[in-house]
Amino acid sequence: QPESFRVFYSRAHSRWNGSWMDSEHARVARRGRLLFPVVFSLVVQVPSVFATFDPAHRPEPLHLASGQFWAALVLTVLGPLALLARRRFPGPVVAVVSAAAGIDLFVVSPNNAPIYIALAVAIVSAIRLEARVWAWVSVGSAWILSLVVSIVLGTSWSPFRIAATTLGILIVFGLGESARTRSDRFAQIARIRAQRRQSEVQAERVRIARELHDVLA
After folding, report:
1. Over 43-54, what HEC string results?
2. Angle, to 10 degrees, between the axis of helix 159-216 and the axis of helix 117-128?
3. Residue 142 main-chain phi, psi, to 5 deg
4. Inter-axis angle of helices 67-82 and 90-107, to 10 degrees?
5. What's residue 61's pLDDT?
6. Cβ-contact 127, 177 below 8 angstroms
7. 138 CB burial (10 A radius; 0-12, 13-18, 19+)
8. How far is CA 191 from the centre of its chain?
């Protein structure tokens, strides 16, 4: 019947249009989740480098024109920019960011070094994206190697700073594991909803097929 066809066409059109809008919103949200940690890391880390090398706040003769400052700035920017590839290559990204954070400790005094936000983001992303071994090996190796090099070079490291950094790394790993568990739970719920939606669509198709069969009969 014409009325049944119009109802069927209206439902199909609304579903297609709604699915397109949902996909567009999901694409924008996905891009925002990718870029926000990068921008946030840059906003936090870059100004802290300028503040660390400001002669007005340091007794040492460090200034913004020194090679040490530019090395610290490059390392500070390298970590956040590497986060742009964390979805495709979560393991190599956490390795690169860990190396940059470890080297940054020796470019800047470890007792005055700013917090490397990009490392926390890389750890959480690697754990969520099933690169847990990469995260543990990369971060653990970078931190242990930094401690060994500091002993060899005779670098003065505050025990409180060492304990706080170790505790912070463990806390970030705990947050990553929690995020991974929550993500798995949401994925399971999404699969159940998709199965129910598929069942409803299949039931609707059967109903429409019966109506068409009755019309033809």
Report:
1. HHHHHHHHHHCC
2. 40
3. -65, -40
4. 160
5. 47
6. yes
7. buried
8. 23
Can you read off the two tokens belonging to residue 169?
């790394």
Instruction: Specify the residue for token string 């401690």.
Output: 147
Question: Helix/strand/coil (H, E, C) string of the chain?
Answer: CHHHHHHHHHHHHHHHHHHHHHHHHHHHHHHHHHHHHHHHHHHHHHHHHHHHCCHHHCCCCCCCCCHHHHHHHHHHHHHHHHHHHCCCCHHHHHHHHHHHHHHHHHHCCCCCCCCCHHHHHHHHHHHHCCCHHHHHHHHHHHHHHHHHHHHHHCCCCCHHHHHHHHHHHHHHHHHHHHHHHHHHHHHHHHHHHHHHHHHHHHHHHHHHHHHHHHHHC
Single-letter code of the amino acid located at 71:
A
* Residue 155: φ, ψ to 5°: -70, 135
Distance CA 127, CA 108 (A): 28
The per-residue pLDDT string of the chain (217 residues; one tens digit each, 9 = 90 and over) reads 444 545 444 555 555 555 555 677 778 788 888 899 899 999 988 888 887 776 555 545 455 556 788 888 898 899 999 999 998 999 999 999 999 998 888 887 655 666 789 999 999 999 988 888 999 999 999 999 988 988 888 877 778 888 888 999 999 999 988 888 887 787 777 777 777 787 777 777 888 888 887 788 7
Which tokens sit at 87?
Answer: 């979805």
Give me the sign of the Cα torsion angle 66, 114, 141, 37.
negative
For residue 178, the one-letter residue type is S
